[in-house]
Amino acid sequence: MASGFRLIFATSLLLALLDLCRGSTIGICYGRNADDLPTPDKAAQLVQLHNIKYVRIYDSNIQVLKAFGNTGVELMIGVPNSDLLAFSQYQSNADTWLKNSILPYYPATKITHITVGAEVTESPSNFSAQVVPAMRNVLTALKKVGLSKKIKVSTTHSLGVLSRSFPPSAGAFNSSHASFLKPLLEFLAENQSPFMVDIYPYYAYRDSPSNVTLDYALFESSSDVIDPNTGLLYTNMLDAQIDAIYYALMALNFKTIKIMVTETGWPSKGSPKETAATPDNAQTYNTNLIRHVINDTGTPAKPGERLDIYIFSLFNENRKPGLDSERNWGLFYPDQTSVYNLDFTGKGSADVITQANVTSSNVTTWCIASSKASELDLQNALDWACGPGNVDCTAIQPSQPCFEPDNTVAHASFAFNNYYQQNGATDVACSFGGTGIKVDKNPSYDNCIYMTAGSNKTVASNTTAISSTSSFATMNRVPTWVFSCLLGTFMLVLSKS
Ligand SMILES: *[C@@H]1O[C@H](CO)[C@@H](O)[C@H](O)[C@H]1NC(C)=O
Ligand SMILES: *[C@@H]1O[C@H](CO)[C@@H](O)[C@H](O)[C@H]1NC(C)=O
Ligand SMILES: *[C@@H]1O[C@H](CO)[C@@H](O)[C@H](O)[C@H]1NC(C)=O
Ligand SMILES: *[C@@H]1O[C@H](CO)[C@@H](O)[C@H](O)[C@H]1NC(C)=O
Ligand SMILES: *[C@@H]1O[C@H](CO)[C@@H](O)[C@H](O)[C@H]1NC(C)=O
Ligand SMILES: *[C@@H]1O[C@H](CO)[C@@H](O)[C@H](O)[C@H]1NC(C)=O
Ligand SMILES: *[C@@H]1O[C@H](CO)[C@@H](O)[C@H](O)[C@H]1NC(C)=O
Ligand SMILES: *[C@@H]1O[C@H](CO)[C@@H](O)[C@H](O)[C@H]1NC(C)=O
C-alpha cells in the first residue's frame, strides 16, 4: 500500500490543490456584440497582459477558442438561447457540437464551464422548457467523452428569477418560474454545478435611486443595512443580492449549490438620465469589487465562502441595443486602451494598469513588503512565499546574509522580491494580498543581495505548476474554503486508495 498510497496522495493532493484549493476568483466577460473589436488573438493577449485568469464567452467561436489555447486562461463558454431548441431535441446535436466545436481545442484551451442558455426568464420568447433538456444532453455528451467531471454544465439567470430580494433572508424565487427552476436546481445539485446569476447593483440604483444609496451600490457605504430577520449587517448591495439567492436556494432546501456571479459591472457612460454611469463610478465599483472578492471575505450569510465573479465586460460593444449605457460596460475601448484605470490584482493603487500597450520596459523594479501591513498578514505571506510559493528562503535564516534585521518586514521583503523576480516581475507577482509594493530602488544592503529579473532562474521546475496557478492573491487567508479544500483532499485520497 505504502508507495501506491503515497503516489496517489501526491497526485491527489496536487489535483486537489489546483482544483479546490483556490480562493475567490475574478474573471471577465468577453462579449463580442460589436463591429470594431480587435481580433480574438489580440483580445487574448490583452487578457493575459492584465493577468486575468478567467474569461466568459457567450458562444463557442472557434477563433476565440483557438486564441485562448495554451494561455492557461480558464474559459466559460456558452450555448446561445437560439440553439436551445436543437440541443434539447436531439442528443446527437449536442454530441456533434462537442465533437466538432470543442474537442479539437480541448484541453489546450482550458474549458471549465458551459452555460446552456442565458437569462432565459428575461427573453421575450419562452425558452425555459428547453433549458434543462438541453443541459442534460450537453452533460450526456460530456459523459461519453469522459469530461463531465472537468467541465461543469449550468445556465445563467438574471436577478429577476427572484420575486423578492430584500431583506436577503426573505429571498425567494418567483413562483411563476417554478416549473423551470425545480428540475434545474435538481440538476445542479446532482451534478455539483453552480447556480449562475448576473447581478447588477447599477440597475437597482438606477431604477430606484430613492431607496438605494449610490455609496451602498458602490461598496463605499459608511453605514450598514441590517437584515431584520438575521441581524446581519450589509455594507454593500452585491453581498445582499448574492445572499438573497442563497436564502432563496435554502428555502427550497438546496443547501449544497454554490453561487457564481457570471456578470456584474458598472457602465462608464450612459444617456443623460443615467447620471450614475460615469468613469469614476465604474472605476470605483470595479476596484472595490475586486478588492472585496480577492479579500476572501465572503458575504454576511456565508462569511469566508469563496466568491467567483466575472466582470462585465472586456470591451465596449457598439452593437448592443438599448440605452447608451448598454454600449459602455467595457474596461477597454476597441483600440485596447483603457476606459479607466483598473488594478486587476486588487492590491491598491489604481494607477498600475493604464495603457494596454505596456511595452516591456527595461526599468528594473523590486518587490518589498509594505511596512504598513499587519504583522499577521506579513507572516502569512512570508510563510506562503517560502512554502507553496517556492522561494528559496535560506538567506533569511539565522547567520545568513539577510537574517539581520531580524524582523518580519525585512524577511518578507526578501522573500516577496524573490517570488516576484522568479514569476515574471508582473504586478500580480507582487500582490501578496496587498502587502507587497513595487519599488525602483535596489533594496540590497551589505551582503544581502536582492535578486533582479533573470538573475536566478533556477526555480525547482517540479513544483512550478502550483506556484504559477496559485497566485498569492488567492492564497492569503484561511477562510472556509481552505477547510473544504483540505477535507476535499482527504476525501479524494480516501476514495482513491
Ligand atoms: C414558459 O413555458 C412553460 C411551458 O412551456 C410554462 O410552464 C411557463 O409558465 C412559461 N413561462 C412564462 C413566463 O410564460
Ligand atoms: C414573476 O414572474 C412573472 C412572469 O415573468 C411576472 O409577471 C411577475 O411580475 C413576477 N413577479 C414578481 C413578484 O416579480
Ligand atoms: C421604495 O421603498 C418603498 C418602501 O419600502 C416602496 O414602497 C417603494 O415601492 C420602493 N420604490 C421603488 C422604486 O422600488
Ligand atoms: C477584508 O477582510 C477583513 C477581515 O476579514 C475585513 O475586516 C475587511 O473589511 C475586508 N476588506 C474588504 C475590502 O472586503
Ligand atoms: C499601441 O501599439 C500599437 C502598435 O504596437 C500602436 O500603433 C498604438 O498607437 C499604440 N497605442 C498606444 C495607446 O500607445
Ligand atoms: C532599454 O534597453 C534598450 C536596449 O536594450 C536601450 O537602448 C534603452 O536605453 C533602455 N531603456 C532604458 C530606460 O533603460
Ligand atoms: C541561484 O540560486 C542558487 C540556489 O537556489 C544559488 O546557489 C545561486 O547562488 C543563485 N545564483 C544567483 C546569481 O543568485
Ligand atoms: C523533480 O522530482 C524528481 C523526482 O522526485 C527529482 O528526481 C528531481 O530532482 C526533481 N527536480 C527537478 C528540477 O526535476
UniProtKB/TrEMBL annotation:
Superkingdom as given in the UniProt entry = Eukaryota
PROSITE patterns (alphabetical): GLYCOSYL_HYDROL_F17 (PS00587)
Describe the reaction catalysed, as an equation.
Hydrolysis of (1->3)-beta-D-glucosidic linkages in (1->3)-beta-D-glucans
Biological process terms in GO annotation:
carbohydrate metabolic process; defense response
The EC number(s) given in the record are: 3.2.1.39
Q: Name one GO molecular function term.
A: glucan endo-1,3-beta-D-glucosidase activity
- Keywords attached to this entry: Disulfide bond, Glycoprotein, Glycosidase, GPI-anchor, Hydrolase, Lipoprotein, Membrane, Plant defense, Signal
Q: What is its main location?
A: membrane
Q: What subcellular compartments does it reside in?
A: Cell membrane
Membrane topology category: Lipid-anchor; GPI-anchor
Q: Where is the X8 domain?
A: 365-450
List the InterPro entries.
GH (IPR017853), Glyco_hydro_17 (IPR000490), Glyco_hydro_17_plant (IPR044965), X8 (IPR012946)
Kindly indicate whether the keyword RNA-binding belongs to this entry.
Answer: no
State the signal peptide span.
Answer: 1-23
Entry's Gene Ontology cellular component terms: plasma membrane; side of membrane
Cited Pfam families: Glyco_hydro_17, X8
Q: Which family does it belong to?
A: Belongs to the glycosyl hydrolase 17 family.
* Protein name according to UniProt: glucan endo-1,3-beta-D-glucosidase
* Species the sequence originates in: Prunus avium
| Gene giving rise to this polypeptide | LOC110751102
